Amino acid sequence: MPAEEKLPHYSDDLSKPFRLDTSTTYVDGGSGDRYWRDYLQLQCFPIDRFAPDWPAKPDAFSGGLAAYAVALQELAATVLELVAEGLGLDKSFFLGELIGGGTLMNVNWYPPCPDPSLTMGLVPHCDRPLLTVLSQGDVSGLQAKHRGRWIDVHPVPNAFVINLGHLMEIVTNGLLHSVEHRAVTNSSAARLSVVSIIMPEMDSRIEPLPALVSEEKPPKFRPFLFREFNEAYTAAAANREDVLRLFMIHPSDTIGSQN
């Protein structure tokens, strides 16, 4: 799209249902650091709620987005049913208000960076909800933290990456861990990724599942509303340990290591 047609959508107001922006909101300590990323952020599901906010141009945008959003929601529900069954729960356990808050999509564009040693594409962070669904294209750039070191998550053709988020770690009482990840830059190729974040209702009550709590395994996290968590996540600049510690019953405990 021509720059003059994109400019009216440019905004750093997180409350807007459709916007263009650059860098990232989550910067430690307000340092002013900028990151090598342009992105389109929009609410994409439920379609009847958010489609009126989508732009009319280009012509194929709304139809393609609607079809993708529906298929994406079905995929996420299937994955959550499998996770629930694996935990010994009813397969529909996660399919209520924990994914009923709408789906937020970030379409990330990482242009070639003249000097990748100077900046990153996206800061290390964990996603907020139970899970996110990532289409990372065919250019490497995603890294995940594994036992204290960063490893490349290479693209697999025709496959999605599923990231477990903070809420999955909390509701499973630490049985499953949120995945810390980041995006790095390169000097030779542009990278496009599409991240779909399956959000809970803001007033959803979040706490460890009673079925996963016992005398031997007491709850590690206190109950809270997702609204409170959302505010804390932004204030902590999405730092994994800082976010989880705010909701731990014993904040001095060690945060679960990532497998």
UniProtKB/TrEMBL annotation:
<dbReference type="InterPro" id="IPR044861">
    <property type="entry name" value="IPNS-like_FE2OG_OXY"/>
</dbReference>
<comment type="similarity">
    <text>Belongs to the iron/ascorbate-dependent oxidoreductase family.</text>
</comment>
<dbReference type="InterPro" id="IPR050295">
    <property type="entry name" value="Plant_2OG-oxidoreductases"/>
</dbReference>
<dbReference type="Pfam" id="PF03171">
    <property type="entry name" value="2OG-FeII_Oxy"/>
</dbReference>
<keyword id="KW-0479">Metal-binding</keyword>
<feature type="domain" description="Fe2OG dioxygenase">
    <location>
        <begin position="101"/>
        <end position="200"/>
    </location>
</feature>
<protein>
    <recommendedName>
        <fullName>Fe2OG dioxygenase domain-containing protein</fullName>
    </recommendedName>
</protein>
<keyword id="KW-0408">Iron</keyword>
<dbReference type="GO" id="GO:0016491">
    <property type="term" value="F:oxidoreductase activity"/>
</dbReference>
<dbReference type="InterPro" id="IPR027443">
    <property type="entry name" value="IPNS-like_sf"/>
</dbReference>
<dbReference type="InterPro" id="IPR005123">
    <property type="entry name" value="Oxoglu/Fe-dep_dioxygenase_dom"/>
</dbReference>
<keyword id="KW-0560">Oxidoreductase</keyword>
<dbReference type="GO" id="GO:0046872">
    <property type="term" value="F:metal ion binding"/>
</dbReference>
